[in-house]
Design goal:
The chain has helices at about 10-20, 45-60, 95-105, 170-175, 175-190; strands at about 5, 25-30, 65-75, 115-125, 125-140, 155. By secondary structure, the chain is α/β, with parallel strands linked by helices. It has a six-stranded mixed sheet. The longest helix has 16 residues, at about 45-60.
Amino acid sequence: MTREILIATHNQHKKEEIQQILGENFKVTSLTDYDLHEEIVEDGTTFHENALIKAKYCFEKTGKPSLGDDSGLVVEALDGRPGIYSARYAGNHDFAKNMAKVLEEMKNEENRKAYFVTVMCLVDESGERYFEGRVYGNLTREIRGEKGFGYDPIFIPEDYSITFAEMKAEDKNAISHRKEAIEKFLNFLKV
C-alpha cells in the first residue's frame, strides 16, 4: 500500500529528491499538487522552528501527514551563516547570487569547513516529530558542476573530490543530509 506524504515545498527538485530516497512505497505530493500558493512565513529562528511552521501549515490545510523540511548551509568561518537564511542569503531563491556572496565572503579564508543540515518535521494526527541529517565537507573557491541545486556547486562532501553538483543524483542522494533525515524518518515509521 502506497502512503502519501505531503512535502511542504513548491521546489520540484526537492520533491523528486525525496521521492527517489523514499522509494515506491510512498507517493510524495507537494504544495503545488494541492494548489496551495499562499506564502508560508518562515519566521522561526532555527531550522526546527521553520520545519514545524511548514509542516503545520500543510497538515492544517489538507489533513494529510505533512513533512516540513528546512535545510541550509552552515559555514564555520562565517559563524554559521548563511544558516536558516540559506535560500535568501543574497536574493530570494537566487542561488547564483547566494553562492557568489558566500564565495566572496570566503575568498581570503583558509578554513573551508561547512556542512549541510536538513531538519524534517512530521506533523500528523498524533503530533510532531523531528528528524535531522547532516553532511560535512568543505567549500570550493569556484562554482563546479551543473547538477543538483542550491549550494551544491560549491560544496565537496568529506572523503570526495567532487562537488554535489558534479555527482550523479543517486550518488548525492546516497550520502546527503536529506537522505540521513529521511532514513531517521523511515526508521520511525518502521517501513
